[in-house]
């Protein structure tokens, strides 16, 4: 999807674009854009829920002004990994770590949602900066949605687990992974633009970091 975010003073607002299933043990893959005062950078907030459990936040600044023009925000979700990308540059990879007991979203079909909502209890500086309603209306723009996917219909998927159909998986996304160039670009983003990573937040997890954080499978 291409998005252009709320310009000017967007403090307190969250523009969201995400995948989610239904029910109490839902899966979810989130792009959320946390607004800010004019001139301060937007925060791109990412999260992955599996079987109802999230708490896997990674946050980034962007290397451009996301309110000035449209930019492309993409999710690759296949049985092995979830990759978040911005304008074709990968910023985050969440790998399937079921082998060490970490649930992975793969059994529930998800729909795509988008929203723009008031989250001034937490969105900007932890809720210190409130929404300025004199700036309303707040407008985010979406365009050029494109999906290449397995379609869930009448209780079954258009991709069988053993041999996904070529029509649903053209482009090879079903088995796609990061090549060395993409790995380097993701490392560059994480080194220069990542501002929060749950996998390094030892205060939040005093009993030990989540298992996917210490596994060799975690990027």
From TrEMBL:
GO MF, one example: xyloglucan:xyloglucosyl transferase activity
EC id: 2.4.1.207
PROSITE patterns named in the record: GH16_1 (PS01034), GH16_2 (PS51762)
GO biological process: cell wall biogenesis; cell wall organization; xyloglucan metabolic process
Gene Ontology CC: one annotated term: apoplast
Chloroplast listed as a keyword: no
Localisation per UniProt entry: Secreted, Cell wall; Secreted, Extracellular space, Apoplast
Domain GH16: start-end pairs: 1-142
Post-translational modification: Contains at least one intrachain disulfide bond essential for its enzymatic activity.
Function description: Catalyzes xyloglucan endohydrolysis (XEH) and/or endotransglycosylation (XET). Cleaves and religates xyloglucan polymers, an essential constituent of the primary cell wall, and thereby participates in cell wall construction of growing tissues.
Family: Belongs to the glycosyl hydrolase 16 family.
Protein name as annotated: Xyloglucan endotransglucosylase/hydrolase
């Amino acid at each position: 999807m291409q998005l252009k975010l709320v310009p000017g003073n967007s403090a307190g607002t969250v523009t969201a674009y995400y995948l989610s299933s239904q029910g109490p043990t839902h899966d979810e893959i989130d792009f959320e854009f946390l607004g800010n005062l004019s001139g301060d950078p937007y925060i791109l907030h990412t999260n992955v829920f599996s079987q109802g459990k999230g708490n896997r936040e990674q946050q980034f600044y962007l290397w451009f002004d996301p309110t000035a023009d449209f930019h492309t925000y993409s999710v690759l979700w296949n049985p092995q990994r979830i990759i978040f990308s911005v304008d074709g540059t990968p910023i985050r990879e969440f790998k399937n770590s079921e082998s060490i007991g970490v649930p992975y979203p793969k059994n529930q079909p998800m729909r795509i949602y988008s929203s723009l909502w008031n989250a001034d209890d937490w969105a900007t500086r932890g809720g210190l900066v409130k929404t300025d309603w004199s700036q309303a209306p707040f407008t985010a723009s979406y365009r050029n949605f494109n999906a290449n996917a397995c379609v869930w219909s009448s209780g079954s998927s258009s991709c069988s687990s053993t041999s996904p159909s070529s029509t649903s998986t053209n482009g090879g996304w079903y088995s796609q992974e990061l090549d060395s160039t993409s790995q380097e670009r993701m490392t560059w983003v994480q080194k220069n633009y990542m501002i929060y990573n749950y996998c390094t937040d030892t205060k939040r997890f005093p009993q030990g970091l989540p298992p996917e954080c210490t596994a060799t499978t975690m990027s």
